[in-house]
Amino acid sequence: MKKLFLSIVTVFFWISVYSEPGGRITWEPVRGAWGYALEVKNSDGNVIVNTEIQDSFYPVTKFEPGDYSFRVSTINMLKQKGDSTGWVKFTVEKLYVPQLASVSKKQLVSSYRNRNIIIKGKNFRPESTFLLRGNDKEIKLTDVDIVSENEVKISYKPSSTLQGKYDLVIINRGDVESVLKDAVEIVTPEAAETFVIIGGGYLMNTPMGVFKEYLAPSYTGGKLYLQFSLKSPTFENILLETEVNAVQYNNAATKRKSSLQYVSLGLGAGYYYPFESVDLEMFLKFNTGPAYSILTLDENIVDKKSSSLDLFAMAGVGFRLYIGDSFFIEPACSWKTVFYSGGYLNEVGGSLSAGVKF
């Protein structure tokens, strides 16, 4: 009887509902053999398969992941066994079928490091390979942080020669891949898109310091703001901003005999840190500019009104929660100082805003 030649491989099987099972151990068929006697042992040395078959392969898709070994003997037409091979080791591993769902940035700017590119999907593994495919190129992405099985964070600095649209590809063990068509486009800095945010909301303030003795907390206030993004990915988390606030204070006495109103126009910038998995941003912003104030010492008496144009400075923190692709709500708090001649008004404020990103 001729000797058996074995094909020894690591055996994978699929775990996706979209894939057919596959995976088997094989050996070279022997001419003249009626069949084969197969034995399979698990890692504990227990024989879990002892059977006679006529095929030169045996499926192992129902085996649990782990280490195994097998040996095969030929069987002739008289059902007599020939010589047996030695025990041959093999491993069964799960083959995770990946799925790509979305990428947070549709546009990558060449010659800059594009950070915090969030990719969402399923079955992301430590051994997964991510690449861009298109324009007759395959570009492997190496700066990859696998946050979980469903989320990956990538940074990538494309060269100036790579403009164009690319598919995003993930490849898992066993060369199983998923493709997100036309997922990103690499553009020059001059062609990079920008966006604008318009928002507004309710504002309430509490005076601090010496003004606290004279003014009650203000529940009459509002704000409008306009924000602009920058083209450079180096400053992708920074937004330029102009903001208008309108506030009215009344005196702390029981009878309302005086009031202070001001309107401020601020110019500044904010740093917005994204939590992509929950569509949430935390921000810190500063702005400064002129404030026009009107002080009325006795209500409805014009002669007792005075006005001034002064400077202010403001710092604020808060959260921006996106609902859908562009609409958001924004709770925030702030510290503001209006520098009047001979004194200044300090106030702590809180606001609830909403806006749209264009």
Task: Give your account of this protein's structure.
The chain is 0% helix and 64% strand. It is elongated. It starts with 5 loop residues before the first strand and ends with a strand. By secondary structure, the chain is mainly beta. About 5% of the residues have low confidence. It folds into 3 domains: 90 residues, Sandwich (Immunoglobulin-like), CATH 2.60.40.10; 93 residues, Sandwich (Immunoglobulin-like), CATH 2.60.40.10; 162 residues, Porin (Beta Barrel).
In short:
Helices cover 0% and strands 64% of the residues.
Which key terms come to mind for this protein?
single chain; 358 residues; mainly beta; Immunoglobulin-like; Porin; 3 domains; eight-stranded antiparallel beta barrel; six-stranded mixed β-sheet; 0% helix
